[in-house]
Amino acid sequence: MEKLFSVTLAGGRKTEVFLASPGEDLAVGSDFIVTDANAGQYLGSRTADVVLPPGEGSKNWDSIDRILSSALAMGLARDSLFVGLGGGVILDMTAFAASIYMRGARVSLVPTTLLSMVDATLGGKTGIDYGGGKNLVGTFFPAEAVIIAPWTLKTLSDAEYRSGLGEVLKHAVLSQDDRLFRFLEENRNGVMGRDDAILAEMIRLSLEVKISYIERDPEERKGIRSALNLGHTFSHALESYMDYGISHGEGVAWGTAAAIRTGARLGITPQDLASRTLALLSLYGFSSDAYRIPADDFASYSAAIGKDKKKSRGSVRFVLMEGQGRPVLIELPEDEIRKAVIG
Amino acid sequence: MEKLFSVTLAGGRKTEVFLASPGEDLAVGSDFIVTDANAGQYLGSRTADVVLPPGEGSKNWDSIDRILSSALAMGLARDSLFVGLGGGVILDMTAFAASIYMRGARVSLVPTTLLSMVDATLGGKTGIDYGGGKNLVGTFFPAEAVIIAPWTLKTLSDAEYRSGLGEVLKHAVLSQDDRLFRFLEENRNGVMGRDDAILAEMIRLSLEVKISYIERDPEERKGIRSALNLGHTFSHALESYMDYGISHGEGVAWGTAAAIRTGARLGITPQDLASRTLALLSLYGFSSDAYRIPADDFASYSAAIGKDKKKSRGSVRFVLMEGQGRPVLIELPEDEIRKAVIG
To answer: Is residue A55 pLDDT above 90, yes or no?
Structure first.
């Protein structure tokens, strides 16, 4: 395996990010493997110890309980290595369970979706849904290794692949240099064709952007890591408004467009960045008009924003862009939110 | 309140330890208070938000679930302050719940037993019992404040007070200087009479010893913090063998005597430290002969040691003393364990 990054995160813990080649053991060194039925195929001759049903519905304490009790029954100790292999849900839960098993066992994560490769896996956030809210219970517990195996993306559905692309495009806007943005502008065919080398480079550039934010604010307490929520406040409300009938990354791409247009309208985002971002989104098939909220439905969309509000005791700050790689957190008046989303 | 210590613990988090005077608000700054029926009396005009049944039987996920769902219903955010007030069980659970609420809310802890003041509260260990094992699920999550209110010890039962003294005596042996040891030798009457000023000084000296070990090894990974387990391997097995019909501190005092005598027998512990320690234990009414295991029952005592073995994958190392403040971790042959405990 090729080491891509060594990242210092919450509590000074280090995560090493590796790029695996086909045929390499993705669960190397594991004492205990958690996966879902979809991802088991990448285990080679190994077998999983816990197989959870795929999907957000598994993201609860019952699943954690299953992982913990299996680990205990197998006699795992604090220095045992838990390996999570699968999409974001599996990885979040494996890492959460490991983080509380004997006050912290070892964990290594192998994402098999583009969304989890570029977004959820690196950064130490673990958690489960609780009381109707997403990720309301969890820990900051960086994995000791994250293993990227781009070829696992070949079998991903188009919708899931597209969901990951939404986050990649967001990272392009947040990047302090122009490499990822240009790479995406210049390699549309390779990206859409899921070419191995192109995928590896796109993921590497995307992770570089994420790392530059999370290393400066690993526990999201300084308003720096929060910039990675570009598009997310618009998107969370849309996902909730649509009863989760839209993928996360699809929502994020739409929310990024909404944030960019709002920034441009308010004179915060330069026109050239706005045009270039909307063109890039469009190049990958994300139309900013894809989801317009009917005017007489705005109240229920706006109520969904209230959920984020609850999480932060009253104020919701949107991420807007003063330039490429220059996010600002701003409270938006209701009227600006309305302008951004109604059709 | 008087600040006694500022301690740097897991993840670089700081815990400040305060000594409160009677009449001061022990739940200062709280957004949310967890306590048990016994400790509610120290809340003054405040009321608790969650009241759990006292005792080890509450130390499970159901209680954590109650705390988390109440916190959520009250709209608490990541910057809300959870206050736990009570004995070790309440504090461990409040801190565990806070540590996973939105990936870590703020927590401050107010111990109302001597055992929790000198032992469990400071150091960041949180947790619940799981699958029949103690503290098998939890986190390292140091409280931002620990508030010591010695006058709450006046109403403690003699048995509970004595349990705390067991840990204090253990700290005297582990101390790298002689202050706590001498203080205990010279102040028996004040300690047994629970004189406020004597209690405050005894707790301060005892915490100083604990801090010297935990600051060098906050997550118990280097074998330094493990020294605080002096007497504990002998004790855990005794507690289990006696079906928990003995208090923890009572067991620890007995286990400390067993470790000291074993060390002396093996030529590891100097005779003068051994005699002085056994005399101190005896001064406080802890006879090393209080619990002798009948020879034909040794197998079941020895099996109970196996539980600690499971936790550490095979080897159990006992803490023995090469001198005052000079612990060593040593695997003991079965025969030495037998000599230490059978009657």
So the answer is: no
- B74 at the A interface (CB within 8 A)? no
| B14 touches A at CB < 8 Å | no
Query: What is the predicted pLDDT for the residue at A315?
Result: 75
Residue to substitute from A63, A100, A312, interface B, most B β-carbons within 10 A? A100
**Is the CATH code 1.10.150.390 the one for domain B2-156?**
no
Whether the pLDDT of residue B333 is over 70: the answer is: yes
Cβ–Cβ contact A55 with B under 8 A: no
What are the residues whose beta carbons fall under 8 Å from the beta carbon of B181, sequence distance 6 or more? Answer: B172, B173, B175, B276, B280, B324
Q: Are strands B145-148 and B14-19 parallel, antiparallel or unpaired?
A: parallel
Using a CB-CB cut-off of 8 Å, the residues of chain B touching A99 are 139
Contacts of A142 in chain B (CB under 8 A): none
In chain A, beta strands by DSSP E: 2-8, 14-19, 32-36, 50-52, 81-86, 106-111, 128-130, 133-137, 145-148, 317-323, 326-331
For A212, the enclosing helix (H) or strand (E) is helix A196-214
Taking the Cβ of residue B130 and every Cβ of chain A, the question of whether any pair is shorter than 8 Å is answered with: yes
Contact A72 B100 (CB under 8 A): no
A200: its two tokens: 């590896």
Domain A158-196+209-343 adopts which CATH fold? Dehydroquinate synthase-like, alpha domain (1.20.1090)
pLDDT tens string A86-97: 999 999 999 999
Three-class DSSP category at A71: helix
Where residue B129 falls among pLDDT bands split at 50, 70, 90?
very high
Spans of all domains in chain B? 2-156, 158-196+209-343
- Which A residues, 281 through 320, put their C-beta within 8 Å of a C-beta on chain B? 310-313
Q: Is the pLDDT of residue A287 over 90?
A: no
Global ipTM: 0.92
Chain A nearest-CA distance from B269, in A, is 31
Predicted pLDDT of residue B287: 82
Asked if the Cβ–Cβ distance from A101 to B140 is below 8 Å, we say no
Is the Cβ–Cβ distance between B57 and B128 less than 8 Å? no
Q: Give the CA distances from residue B135 to residues A103, A106, A254, B89, B129, in Å, rounded to whole numbers and listed in that order.
A: 8, 18, 45, 10, 5
Tokens 């006879």 sit on residue: B287
Sign of CA dihedral B3, B8, B14, B17: negative
Give which of B32, B63, B65, B102 to mutate to test A binding, by max A Cβ within 10 Å.
B102
For residue B43, the SS3 value is helix
Which chain A residues have a beta carbon less than 8 Å from that of B219?
A: 103-104
Q: In chain A, which among 92-111 make CB contacts under 8 A with chain B? A: 99-104
CA dist., res. B44 & res. B40, Å (int): 8
